[in-house]
Structure formats: structure tokens, C-alpha cells
Prior knowledge:
The protein is an alpha/beta fold. Helix content is 34%, strand content 20%. The longest helix has 16 residues.
Amino acid sequence: xxxxxxxxxxxxxxxxxxxxxILPQVxxxxxxxxxxxxxxxxxxxxxxxxxxxxxxxxxxxxxxERYASELGIAVVMPAVNRSxxxxxxxxxxxWTFISEELPALARSFFPLAEERELNFAAxxxxxxxxxxKLALTHPDRFAAAASLSGxxxxxxxxxxFPDDFKLIFEDVSRIKGxxxxxxxxxxxxxxxxxxxxxxxxxxxxEDFLYEDNVRxxxxxxxxxxNLTYExxxxxxxxxxxxxxxxxxxxxLPLPSRS
Length: 258
């Protein structure tokens, strides 16, 4: 894999932004790393960080480069600060950045595929919320999304982060039923006439977000969405996420597996 520490200017944020990118590379003599390249532009996973992290965290806490190498997929890991992947009421437009500007810029910099069936999103905690929000809002752009210990019910969790949520949403009572509410977005996906993205959700049974995840799981099942759900003993920590991201990569509906 090639590893790029990419810094660039963002029009939607009005400041310089950062992302880590790993790109597939077939090497004949590299020891200890299996590699593969898809024929054409690279299938791409947008891998999102949590509330207290940044774009470096997946590379620092897991072996994502090694896991992705044998699949021949690119992984894009952007920084969005404590934004909850929203256009903030008192701050930058991070939703516009992550959903519109970032994919276009990344494809202009690197040979990344544009086709829906070659684009995926995943993330942990706040990033699990962001990944689901991407796929539920834009089912025409993403073939699959995965949430690891995701903050999937942010209207319920608003009181946990009052300072952040006031800056992001101004009035938290407006979250429910809005484009920031995954339950509302799930309703919209259930009525979607096109091919719906596949969804993956996992959460440790000792995680403080476990009950939120059970509620969202049950809601998706009521709507008959294409959801794969996994739970097992686990907390809100990197040992769990390092294990589960490997499951996500095995689950991804890559064309080579169809």
C-alpha cells in the first residue's frame, strides 16, 4: 500500500484540511504483506473517526493498512474535529465537506472510483453515525455503510455533550425528524425506490451506547432494511474496533465477491 499524508485547502470549511489516504499497490518483493489491485480505479472506503480523535487515529490504533492491502481498496480518512459530521450552526460546514467536497477532491488527487458499487463508508462512535448518515442520505452514492459502536441516536445523546451540541445544532430539539436524525433517514431509505445500501452495525454489550444501538437495530428491522447486526461482549475501546473493522472489511460487498 502507498500511504499519503494529505493536506489541502477546503472551500467549504474555509481553512486547510487534512486526511490520510492509503492506496493499493501490488509489490512483488515486499515481505509479510499480501496485496491486490482492482482492475480500474480503486474501490474506496471512507473511514471516519470518533469524537475525541482525528484523521490519524485509524492508522495509529489499528492495522487498517495491512487489513485493506489484500482487498485492493483505497481508504480515505478525513479530519472533521468534533462536528458530528454536520454543517454547524456556529462553525464550519463539515457535512458539506464530508459529503460533497471531500469525495470530489479525493478523486481529483487520486485514482478513486466514482461508481456507487465501489464506494463505502465506515466509522466508529461519532464516525459510525457519520458513515450511516452518508449512506442513508445518499443511497445513490454508497453501496454499503458500517457503524462500529456508533452514536446512532444523537437526539437521545444530546445531553451528553451540551457544549458541542449547542455549537453544532443550536437547538437540540430540532434534531429529531431532521436530516441529522438516523431514524428519520432510515424512514426515507425504506421509501427509496432505488437499490438501497447494505448496512452493518455492531456494538459491545458493555458499551455505553449499547441501548442506543439496539433501538436503531430494531427500528431498521421493522423497516426491513438490509442490516447485518453483530454484538458480543465489548466496551467503547480500540481493541474492540480493531477486531470489528476486520469483520467490516470481510463483509463489504466488493465486486470481486459477487
